[in-house]
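Structure request: licheninase, Halolactibacillus alkaliphilus.
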Amino acid sequence: MTHLNFKKRIYLLLFVLCIGSIMFISSHSQLFSSIRQFLFRQAPETIDIVEVTFKSDTHLSDLPLDFNVHIDHSLTTQLSHLYLGASLQDPLGHWIDLPIIDFLPSATNKETITISTHLTELSENMLITGPYKVIVSIWDRPPTEENATRLSSLSIDDALRIYNFKENFQEIDDNIWYSREGQLGRSKLSQERVNVSDGKLKIIIPKGSVDGGELQTTDLVHYGSYEIRMKVPDAPSSITGFFLYKAPDFHHEIDIEIYNQQDSTALFTSYYSGDAYHENKTLLTFDPTKDFYHYRIDYYPSSVSFFINNQLMQTWTEGFSTEPMYLMINTWFPSWLEGLAPSDDQVLEVDWIKY
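Returned structure:
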């Protein structure tokens, strides 16, 4: 009897323990579920645009724009196609949307998507030249569809510079350029001193004279970026101008002027409302007569900025004309400098102009 009673107690104890365990597990099911999820959790799935690389940081609008979008992802589930969109913003704030590209993520967790497009086919008007912002995004469905979700995005300010024209001066095209004759300061400007040779525009200051030359566009130009690569002559008391101008004098003019000498100064000037509104000087840290250097004007409704060798030198936010003007290049002797004639021929050489 005693042995049977002991066994019954054991069975009863086991029964009570089982019932208790079941009740404990039932009342703490959420805790166990959380523990199970923690032990067997997976890393969240992500997709990121890590970099956008352009074939060149300067682009001519009539050529294909080529760039690569580099993507990292940790996608493990089976996905349908994703969608890559890219947009460019010009210096005036206008957007150009590129065609959407659909792609299927690879198993390597890395993607490089190549984009090639002609911007002139996507814009009805001539492009505004200068620095462009680029935004690239990945979507789970075409972004034009309702409820499309942006999965990743990368925005790049000043991603590249876009120009419409690059004049390499294989010849002087009379449809684009015009060389005037007349008096400017101490100098007699002459077409015969403006020519092209060796793939460069050359404006000659003859030895023993204070004469020069000038070239301008036949058409008016307006907002945009204007850049020149040039080597100025070594002719102290003369200057080389790269500028925007329209008659009458002292109303519509924005200048970069370089003193034609080894220890040189750059002069940034605007003429507006009948007077010289801005005049800013800076000493150059290089000899502009010894090699080719870059000079640039960025001209927009709210600002004018000047750059030398891609370094910002001066910015104005008022005090300049906002009307179309001619793009001009000249070398000459102003009356407010001494007027020392060079002992040898001196030459302004222009490698190219972009605008």
